[in-house]
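Open question from group meeting: does this chain pack into something compact, or does most of it stay loose? Before anyone orders reagents, we agreed to write out a predicted structure and look at it together. Recording both the input and the output here so the notebook holds the full record.
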Amino acid sequence: MTSSAPQGTDHDRLWSVDEHLADILAAVRPLEPIELQLLDAQGCVLVEDVTVPVALPPFDNSSMDGYAVRTADVQGASEEFPAVLTVIGDVAAGSGELPTVGPGQAARIMTGAPLPPGAEAVVPVEWTDGGTGGGAAVGMTPASSAPEGAGGEVRVHRAAEARAHVRSRGSDVQAGDLALAAGTVLGPPQIALLAAIGRGTVRVRPRPRVVVLSTGSELVQPGEPLTAGAIYDSNSFALAAAARDAGAIAYRVGAVADDADTLRSTIEDQLVRADLLVTTGGVSVGAYDVVKEALTAVAAGEDDVDGGGIDFRRLAMQPGKPQGFGTIGPDHTPLLALPGNPVSSYVSFELFVRPAIRTLMGLPESAVSRPVVRAELKADKAIGSPAGRRQFLRGAYDPRSATVSTVGGSGSHLIAALAHADSLIVVPEDVTSVEPGAELEVVLLG
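Structure tokens returned:
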């Protein structure tokens, strides 16, 4: 690897990626907890420990469809010399009054049904004749079509030890056990556990509401015809999808034309449903960079109506050099202004917006950013990198060989390459050339 020259003077200082991220995370606070219904809490972070009020399962129950028996009655049973037992009734899941199994008796029992008094084990129906008087059964006659199947006799062809095919009370969790710890992200298995122990609501930090807004008079919505000089708006779709992937509730706003007043008005309208605002485009130094124009007054503190302030910076990174961050509106809602080039905006999202979203969710610091690994670069020739810039290249990571290769070129407009990448290859600021075989940090996107 080849080292570069130092960065510029204080006058043209470039902020580092780490400095910018630190400023963002210092200004973002986790959302206040609320009580939500279970399904509404999916994807949210639990803010309190949840203990088990009752044992799970709450009673001994059968893990098989079969017959509840006393072990002494089936001892030594075989196909040649089956144990013949009197069937005294059915025990279905949800049964209230249960028959008592006495000597020489059995009760048909269904999976999940409580073990009746007197029974010590369950023999699967496949170990019996199913009460038909024939050979080994493959199933039970439905109770609705043949209620008499609950009576008569059953021949048992195999012995069963005590507690065979019985789920013991409390074998999953005991009353008083910790079910879920504070800080747990509630996915389907956690929702299932909460429901199983009887919790209808749970106290969590809500999923952040993220409003994504793209700017540019050249932008056309997908599905509409392209006119001369126009392009389809991909950024707002990419960033809204990325916000959802990060755990947020995302609202995508149609592209706003290059007019500062229209943009300011649109942002003000969106504040009512935003915990975080993300804009893309209009943050550089061009004559039509309306995000910077519209929000510079706020950054300078010249507009009491909006409140807060937005700071526009140049970062020592490629892609994604122009960035903006601050707060806006009476509630000081965080706003991140990202560049408009598709790859620049997506890389910026991964580095800055995703951590902000996950901080709002209340996740621990270790879960805020994407995982980073080290991998060996697979390439045919050395890769150049600009001096003093942290470069992020699209990559394809192979976990089996711990290697990574580049996908597409370094241009910030190459969306097709981004669609085939699963990682970002990080080239440090002090490196201008990376040889094949060099070890680099890799940000995993999947």
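Observations to bring back to the group:
The helical segments are 17-27, 71-74, 188-196, 235-246, 260-270, 290-299, 342-360, 415-419.
The two ends are 28 Å apart (CA to CA).
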